[in-house]
Amino acid sequence: MSDFSTMIPEAPKVLRITLVLPVVTMAVCALLIALPWYSSFATQRLLVEGFTVFAIAMAWNLLAGYGGLVVVGHQMFVGVGAYALFASSNWLGLNPWLCLPIAALVSALFSLISSVPMFRLSGAHFAVGTWVLAEMLHILTLNTTWLGAGAGMPLDALGGFDRWTRNAGVYWAALAAGLGALAIARTILRGRLGLALMSVRDDEPAALASGVSVRIAKLSLWVISGTLTGLAGAVSYMNTLQVTPDATFSLNWTAIAIFTSVLGGIGTLEGPLVGTLLYFLLREVFADYGAWYLIGLGMLAIATMVVAPGGAWSLITRRWPIDLFRVRRDMPKL
Amino acid sequence: MQIAIETLVGGLMLGALYALFGLGLSLSLGVMRMINIAHGDLIVLGAYLCSVIMQLLGVGPFLSLILVVPLMFVIGMLLQSLLLNRVVGGGTLSPLLLTFGLSIVLQNVLQETFSADTRSLQAGDLALRGFHLGGVSIGLLPLLSTVVSVVIFAGTNWLINGSHLGRQARAVADDPATARLVGVDDRNFFALITGFILAVIAIAAVLYGIRTPFAPSSGPERLLYSFEAVVLGGLGNIWGTFIGGVIIGVAQLFGAKVSSGLGPFFGHLVFLATLLARPDGLFRRTQR
Fold first, then answer.
1. How many domains does chain B contain in total?
2. SS3 for B37?
3. Is B74 inside any structural domain?
4. How far is B259 from chain A (nearest CA, A)?
5. Which of A289, A314, B77, B169 has the least CB density, counted as fewest CB within 10 Å?
6. Contact between chains at B112 and A298 (C-beta distance less than 8 A)
């Protein structure tokens, strides 16, 4: 009986949230878009990092948390996207922003092709198999002279823009990638693909038996996630102006995606958001400690996996049933 | 022709070392159904422990094993019982992420303790000695690694397929719940297995440390080679891992002949190409 009495007052609260949320969302978006006019270059650069890391973490989280595809070689998409942008802009002499769609297209194509060998593997084999593929690309770029080999490439065309335009332009691209990642993830989860993925995640044989095309669902997710990561990677390297094989194909990208997703909560939309905030908070405070900072971060991830495998967001939803992006599905009312 | 044979022999012997790297990974994947991403970093840890004990006691690398093997065995048991047992058995994701975190921690602890510089284990002139056999020069150290690797593989194979311990291992691998019903305490058993894995790692680490300079960041590459050996050979087949390692070793050395920077690339390429043809590896045990 007491259960019912605590449930009834929930209804108006949910109503209030649904009314307030769009207004708050629009206000936040407006503030973020106008940011270059009222903030320093340093803030913009930090936020570019934040948005791109969020987009990459979200893409990883979609694969691992909803598709059951744990990727350890996620840096390959970052590398492919960044190299596609730098190469196309440098060779064709094009405006780098116009090359972002090219980078996305190349990443999508790469995802499609790489799915052929990768999807023959599953589980742990798949996870480390993607790492092998990422290593292959790393070694290949290291040995390809027309991609600059070990020294990499600068982004020549960016030199033609003044500092404000360059910073603001990269910032808006990063903002678009970050918000885009969130919007895409939300659209997927609220649509047919999301339903298919969650049924596969929860019980693959049962999903297959109910007519869900597991292969197509996973392939779509893989291509969407790879494209998103490639685009975010490209934007991220517009910020640093130089691609090198060692940095662009570094396992660090996957490590960051895993940390943010694990800390925030794998398999939720809020997880990467909370995780990215936590990650940058920790980094800004403790990064001076060098290796000790990374040791602490690793231990924090280990502790999270053991104590609260659902991450920080699960600690919140355990007490308050919040569904920030309204992706939860309820039984249809009879 | 001479060069081809020499490369082949060198590749076989390098591969035997990779196989020894992979043996532990094969056991943890096969018996505990978990992948240890920190496997390569544990190999590097073993090499550093040897280096420390060699310095402290003024002994050679092989003598240091008398201390390093039991030490690594204990580390393995503690690691499994205190940490890994908490996530094992619940799917791929949790052990993978936990050991990924462990890998980052280990790499940075090693870097903080020993700096990022490379070092190697000095074994007198062993690393340089060799002899000629029918015009093909064979290094004494690679030959020794190969013999050690074959002996350990034979021992492990007997342990898994011929001993009471092995019957328990196979029972746990097939069905942990039923194994528990008939009295196999799988958690204690896992601790024992990880102890064994780390003891093997210690021996592999010495052979590796004499052969190649290592640094705190060398772990991930070791993991990849180990992993390729295991998956190529087919899960649950001990000798399959050995052959898998040998294939990777040979591919790498022939690749390095094509272009000196592309050795590991060809190893990876052969790995992926083989998997395209046979996703379960070359010698996977047929399911009964």
1. 1
2. coil
3. yes
4. 9
5. A289
6. no
